[in-house]
């Protein structure tokens, strides 16, 4: 579920929720000044009257405090005690996952959520919010009998059989994120093809380490290798276009990789 709230938060209600978490009046006033300061976009200064300023330094903090008051505290105080089965809430910024053991409980929550958010001037994204079954598949029927997959924080979560034959939850890079990463690597190599090789190598190492530190999940090793192959292909392709006289073939590129070794993929999060 994705909550669209940055530009629609009622500032009066935001202050009420903020006072429940912060008792220091100086900090509250300083946060209010941060909202009134506005934001500069393409040389123009704007002062929005509602919501938090997108791009503002203090906006993520205020938005998270507001969502904690609207969703997290409400779920723990009022929703969970009324459920007949187990349930949980996972939230990161404006994205969250609600899990229920019983389908009836999930439908009750989905019916109440829009009314809860509407009280605070917040809306739920209609395309990114859905109710789906995500239970462990029956071994005899297989995974095609009613269990979907969902994307959360750039990762696709799905049930898959392990090497021992048990059902486990596998996390892999979402297709949209994978395509975006490949295109970004290709564009960067094209833009910086005339930069010194040392600079290109250092920046590619930083980009690649950042990628597998986030997406280095158990079961996602194959897609990590796919991104590494894409990075090598893009680097060699645009190095070959630096000059028409010295095109870089694969043999010459392999010699370069012996001295400028790109980091190897590895699993960082074993969950």
Question: What keyword list fits this structure?
Answer:
9 strands; two-stranded antiparallel sheet; 271 residues; flat; single chain; 46% helix; alpha+beta; three-stranded antiparallel beta sheet; 8 helices
Q: What report would you give on this structure?
A:
It is a single chain. With 271 residues, the protein is α+β, with helices and mostly antiparallel strands. The chain is built from 8 helices and 9 strands. The strands form 4 sheets. The protein has a 3-stranded antiparallel sheet with strand order 7-8-9. A two-stranded antiparallel sheet has the order 1-6. A hairpin with a 2-residue loop joins strand 4 and strand 5 (95-100). The longest helix is centred in the N-terminal third of the chain and has 21 residues, at 59-79. The chain starts with a strand and ends in a 12-residue tail after the last helix. The relative contact order is 0.08.
Tell me the series of helices and strands, N- to C-terminal.
EHHEEHEEHEEEEHHHH
Gyration radius from CA atoms, angstroms? 24 Å
Number of strands: 9
Global structural class: alpha+beta
- The helix content is 40-55%
Topology:
Blueprint: E1 3-4, H1 11-21, H2 25-36, E2 39-41, E3 44-46, H3 59-79, E4 87-92, E5 95-100, H4 103-119, E6 123-124, E7 150-152, E8 155-161, E9 167-173, H5 175-191, H6 197-215, H7 221-239, H8 250-259
Antiparallel strand pairs: 1-6, 2-3, 4-5, 7-8, 8-9
Describe the structure concisely.
By secondary structure, the chain is of the alpha+beta class. It is built from eight helices and nine strands.
